[in-house]
Amino acid sequence: MRADKRFRVLRQALGYSVSVTVARPREGLRLLQRMVASGDPDAVWIVRENLKNHRLASALPAETETLARSLR
């Protein structure tokens, strides 16, 4: 299923859109933290991509940096 083109398109969309669409940065950060905790490689990729957007980092710099460090 993950090799399916529709899955890849969804993954790419989520890699950009999660940090863009969250109205409350803390809730968005918690969502990303849960995604990392899941251990799913696609979820972790989505988190990495969203952290590149810097939207959450501008609202929650310390928390976002801690999350980013946990991915290294």
Q: Please, could you describe this protein's structure?
A:
With 72 residues, the chain is mainly α. Helix content is 81%, strand content 0%. It contains five helices and no strands. Helix 1 crosses helix 3 and helix 2 packs antiparallel against helix 3. The N and C termini lie far apart (27 Å). The relative contact order is 0.16.
Strand-helix topology:
Elements (H helix, E strand, L loop, with lengths): L4 H17 L3 H14 L2 H12 L2 H5 L1 H10 L2
Helix pairs in contact: 1-3, 2-3
| CA-CA gap between termini | 27 Å
Kindly state the number of beta strands.
Answer: 0
Please provide the ordered H/E string of secondary-structure elements: HHHHH
**Average residue-wise pLDDT:** 92
Q: Taking Cα atoms only, what radius of gyration do you get, to the nearest Å?
A: 12 Å
Which term fits the overall shape? globular
Unreliable runs: none
Binned, the helix content reads over 70%
Percent in strands: under 5%
- Main beta sheet: none
- List the total number of helices: 5
The SS-based structural class is mainly alpha
Question: What characteristics describe this protein?
Answer:
0% strand; 72 residues; mainly alpha
Short description:
The chain is mainly α and 72 residues long. It has five helices and no strands.
